[in-house]
Amino acid sequence: MTRAEISALLACFPIWMRPFVWVQLMLIKRAQMRHGRELMMHVCYATGRLRVVYIADAPREPVAWQCPVPAVTALDRLALAPPAPGCTYVRAPFGLFPCIENLFARAGTARPDTS
Q1: Are β-strands 91-92 and 95-96 bridged in parallel, bridged antiparallel, or unpaired?
Q2: If we measure between CA atoms, which residue out of 37, 8, 42 comes closest to residue 22?
Q3: On the chain, which terminus has fewer CB atoms closer than 10 Å, C or N?
Q4: What is the H or E stretch that residue 95 is in?
């Protein structure tokens, strides 16, 4: 917690409750710094009590494995070999679109006899 957050929280309490709330905040802040975990607290504005509701998981060690950087990026790969123009195969509920002829021309096969 920063000083601004602490002062904003203390401003919500009457003057006679602030020392009690401040001591609780300092105890919670010390424990938080010692363990390195984030906390979610419940603040009772009627009694001035702070209660820790949730504690975050323990911090993990940094991962030593790093993903290797590719020699050629995907954008460069696309620039080296752009995709073939036209569509290759399109299926519609009522049959094939006319661009299916590109598929047979590229595959080097003869068109099927549909008569």
Answers
A1: antiparallel
A2: 8
A3: C
A4: strand 95-96
Find the helix or strand (DSSP H, E) in which 23 lies.
Answer: helix 18-35
Residues 23 and 17: their CA atoms lie apart, in Å, by: 10
* C-alpha triplet 76, 77, 83: angle, nearest 5°: 120
Rounded alpha-carbon distances, angstroms, from residue 12 to 3, 39, 46, 47: 15, 20, 11, 12
Average pLDDT over every residue of 90-101: 55
pTM for the full model?
0.48
Identify the bridge partners of residue 95 per DSSP, sorted by sequence position. 92
Alpha carbon distances (Å) from 31 to 9, 19, 20, 52, 60 = 18, 19, 17, 11, 18
